[in-house]
Model the fold of this input.
Amino acid sequence: MNLRALAGFAAIAAALAAVGFGQSWSVSLAVLNLCLISAVMALGVNIQWGYAGLFNVGTMAFAGLGGLAAVLVSQPPVHAAAAAGGADLLLAGAAACLTAGLVWLVVRRVPRGRLRTACVAVTAVAGYFVIAAFFDPAIEAIEAVDPSTSGYLGGLGLPIVLSWAAGGLFAAGAAWVIGRVALGLRADYFAIATLGISEIVIAVLKNEDWLARGVKNVTGLDRPVPYEIDLQQAGWFADMVGSLNAGALAAASEADRALLLRDLVIEASGIFVKLCYAGLFAAVLLALLVLSERALRSPWGRMMRAIRDNEIAAEALGKNVYARHMQVFVLGSAVVGVAGAMLVTLDGQFTPNAYHPMRFTFLIWVMVIVGGSGNNLGAVLGGFIVWLSWIEAEPLALWTIDALTAAMAHDDPLRIHLVEAAAHVRPILMGLILLLVMRFSPRGVIPETVRR
Amino acid sequence: MSYLAGEDMHGGYGGADILRGCSVSVARGEIVVIVGPNGAGKSTAMKALFGMVRLRRGEVRLDGDPIGRLTPQDRVKRGMAFVPQTGNIFATLSVRENLEMGAFLRRDDISDSIERVFDLFPVLGEKHRQLAGELSGGQRQQVAIARALMTRPDVLMLDEPTAGVSPIVMDELFDRILEIRRAGIAILMVEQNARQALAIADRGFVLVTGKNRYTDSGQALLANPEVRRSFLGG
Amino acid sequence: MPVDLVNALVLLANFVVVPAIAYGSQLALGALGITLVYGILRFANFSHGDLMAFGTMATILATWQLQGWGIGLGVLPTAMLALPAGIVAAVLAALAADRTVFRFYRIRRSSPMVLSIASVGVMFVLNGLVRVIIGPDDRSFADGTRYLLNARQFKEATGLAEGLTVRTSQLLTLAVAVVAVAALFWFLRRTRAGKAMRAYSDNEDLALLSGVEPGRVVLTTWVIAASLAAVAGSLYGLDKSFQPFTYMQLLLPMFAAAIVGGIGQPHGAIAGGFLVAFSEIALTYPYRKFLRYLLPEDMQPDGLMQLLSTDYKLSVSFVILVVVLLWRPTGLFRGRVL
Done:
């Protein structure tokens, strides 16, 4: 780690401490947790852009699929729904596989030409109707089961931490399919194609209620860490808080002591939970960071960068550029998927409406560019810096507007408008950060180190 | 008195010099051909004359004035015209529009020039509404040359005008070039088809590794046994 | 012609053809801007959707001002009078973005990727500005006569069971689009500056050699692209309603239209816009009623007969895009391969 990186992380730590002292430690830790998740996402995008120069504007899809994994792994199964529509759904799946197999067979066996096109079309259309014949009643039955609380198949009822790996797998699988279609395209067309795919994936998550309740959301997800309420009732926790605050408690009067302890325990329980999350996320981040660094320094990483810097020369040297791009696309997307699952775990709910390209695709890009593309540590730092600015932009803007309009009357329409507008300063700030870094420090806060 | 001259040119595209003391010149009403093996710096010499290659040493003079500091665009304004080897037409514009673009800097009436160009290349007159990209290889070269003539240049520089066209088309193109010379224009060409080009040339320069090897009249070079053996394939 | 067939056709016209023509015109105008920037400045401009939103916002503000003064156009929406304000705002925004952001990378001949990422920054700024100035909510600014032809009148006049509705905004969209496109083609085909633009798009080096001033070409391109964006955005806002976020969602169909038609090919962008619009609407329209008119009693379908749920309409542009890119990468009208 070089001096710049050290200084960068020190500045972040100082900023988080300032939030802790200025607002509250609870807020500060909440920001930290999202910083950690953002850093993982930025790491994933950096693997694609920084290592291989893939301009993937579909990050949102992989984060969304990670979130879906959290639901499908951790929620208890809804047996009634499975009984109502499970068989038909399986048949629909089998029909889909059969159709795909038949199309594949036709493509393999029938020579290229009109006949093949016709055969493929007939097979696909026929398959569509067969699939629909099973699928439509299946989802109707599933969604009819207790629609206000379930109406979906539920999940596997496993610990939610497992879903982080599952999220990575989901995203990797989707990336493989998407890569098959889009990786052959020119770089800018690839970007537009991934943008489109991400919108489609989110549309699926919003509308396929049988899968994860769509926009009806899945709330109350399992937690990998204790609940605040349990902590507050646990004797050991109260003892620990008591011993940590012994001085303050001793100073309080006999009558106040119990009340004070209760307040302290309540506050500490929230902080404790957030610290647990932070520990888990930091462990994941560190593990991924170490793995990414090792990959980057390996012969594989050198080859990736060679391909990025001169695709034609690498191809001429016999490197299979498409296969390498596919690897890196799948790996990077998997990392984003892990982050997506972690985010839903932290939120405790899956809300497809929350997925917006601004927040889940372009903001991640800002992180990577700001941090320094091609440098893993840079991407992580970028994740921290950008998330912190994104979150703190609103209170800062509000504070500035308050200060500027202090002289105005409280019901001045301009003042009211400005106060309402404060939240929307965020995208402006993000855009400016991106543009300024690109212009004046194009290699980012921690530039890529050239290793030969 | 040569109209356009590059004297003792040294330079290249960054890196090692490609031109290492090369001099070429052309007078009005003269056809000059630059020949030489691959990588001798023929095209580079021409681009240097046109200001598309930075010279480290040497000077380019037009009508006696040093023009080494002028941009290619300014050299066009001074009466130089250049037909690159590739990408020398606007493929998605019609033939007539290509000619209009050739005369883009002119503010006067260009219909005269268009008529004259159509007299020179009658096939372009017939196809003036067609997209240039839809024409045959030889016709595209005609469009490229015609486009360059639209500025009414004093010097016409052609970088391999017959690359990739059939021998019959090549002869026809050379006939046109001879006709253009009659108007008193100085013509400088780089040619791969050295024999045929030297046959119509007044003078020829043989470049090897960025330096002049032989300079003589076209006929003399064709007759020179050493030139024949080394550069014209016997 | 049997009455049932006429009814079926009117139904189709009402729910597919008329809306698709309006939507297609809006997409075409937007895609024209994208294709011009793509062909001449050579990058995929992700900020185009938000440029549309920015221009539309200015149109709305001017419309409100005019309405406040009691100035209107009678039958036509006041927004038509306010459109110049939207155009000016969008042009100024585009020129400011070019001056402060894009020019720097253009001079350095940065890769198209870098310019595209920079356009993401511009997108963020424009998006934030729109939300700060007018707020993130739905804004309605349509006035004038809402319907040129409403279903009841149509039914009474023709005696058919199905009605045909034509909204003022729909016809207006078509009319404005026709005028704008005609003006654009006249400019590109007939004027010196237009030919210079086409030449620059076709062969930059040769255009420079011919004396084309790149700064002028770039300026003209932004002025045209931003004007079309403001017009397209305002018409879309009149036809549907204005919401800052929806314009970002138009990015994909517009890119699809531009690429499908061939980058740098204005007529391709128009064809692409209509192709995307018609496919999107035709594939998501439920054909149950249509088939009821045509099929005998015992063959009547009971499902909606909708090929694709409306929620997935974005996937239509996407599929068109990918299919064209894989099978004919230069687009239907053979655009330039950058």
